């Protein structure tokens, strides 16, 4: 009898240990997703902060391109107004903003004086650097989301995830297939 009680206690302790280990792994994965999203958010904010300067510089040389300038400004506002936590909505809005920025850069190609402007060239180089950092942040976030989602769906961690209401994370994806094509942006290099 005593041996049977001891084995039951050992089994309960072992089960509790594994449940705690799984729970902590889920918490870590969820925190990695949050960290990844924060990285994307920081880079997108940097890009959004750069846009007014870019628009004003282009406006000085190509003021009659008001539709393109208004579109970039409207897409920036739309991207910034997406509710926090709406990953899919933010991805869609940022994709549309990226396309509008691509059209703005195409307009800039028509103005040799603008392409030679040192301020514009600096803004373009900064935008190029930020776009690269956004891509790295997206990859990190999506990798973290994948890891969390695997844990939320896999046995036995799915049992612990259901008990403690862990949810899958959305991927930061582009929904419109046309948006998957990178805008053709040149940075004054010929």
Describe this structure in words.
The chain has helices spanning 2-62, 66-80, 87-108, 112-116, 118-153, 157-163. With 190 residues, the protein is mainly alpha-helical. It has a single domain (13-180), classed as LemA-like domain (de novo design (two linked rop proteins), Up-down Bundle). The longest helix is centred in the first third of the chain and has 61 residues, at 2-62.
Key features of this structure:
77% helix; 190 residues; 6 helices; mainly alpha; de novo design (two linked rop proteins)
* Proportion of residues in helical segments: over 70%
CATH architecture grouping: Up-down Bundle
Number of domains: 1
Largest sheet: none
Rg estimate, integer Å: 24 Å
Low-confidence stretches: 185-190
Task: Write a brief caption for the model.
This protein has 190 residues and is mostly helical. The chain is 77% helix and 0% strand.
Summarize the topology.
Blueprint (H helix, E strand, L loop, with lengths): L1 H61 L3 H15 L6 H22 L3 H5 L1 H36 L3 H7 L27
């Amino acid at each position: 009898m005593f041996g049977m009680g001891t084995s039951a206690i050992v089994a309960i302790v072992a089960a509790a240990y594994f449940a705690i280990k799984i729970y902590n792994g889920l918490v870590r994965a969820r925190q990695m997703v949050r960290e990844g999203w924060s990285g994307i958010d920081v880079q997108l904010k940097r890009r959004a902060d750069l846009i007014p300067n870019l628009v004003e510089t282009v406006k000085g040389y190509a003021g009659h391109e008001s539709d393109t300038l208004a579109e970039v400004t409207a897409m920036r506002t739309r991207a910034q107004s997406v509710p926090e936590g709406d990953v899919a909505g933010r991805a869609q809005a940022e994709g549309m903003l990226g396309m509008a920025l691509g059209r703005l850069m195409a307009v800039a190609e028509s103005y040799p004086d603008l392409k030679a402007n040192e301020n514009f060239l600096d803004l373009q180089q900064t935008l190029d650097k930020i776009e690269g950092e956004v891509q790295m942040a997206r990859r990190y976030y999506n990798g973290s989301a994948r890891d969390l989602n695997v844990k939320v769906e896999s046995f036995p961690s799915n049992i612990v995830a259901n008990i403690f209401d862990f949810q899958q994370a959305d991927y930061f994806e582009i929904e419109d297939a046309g948006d998957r094509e990178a805008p053709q942006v040149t940075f004054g290099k010929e």
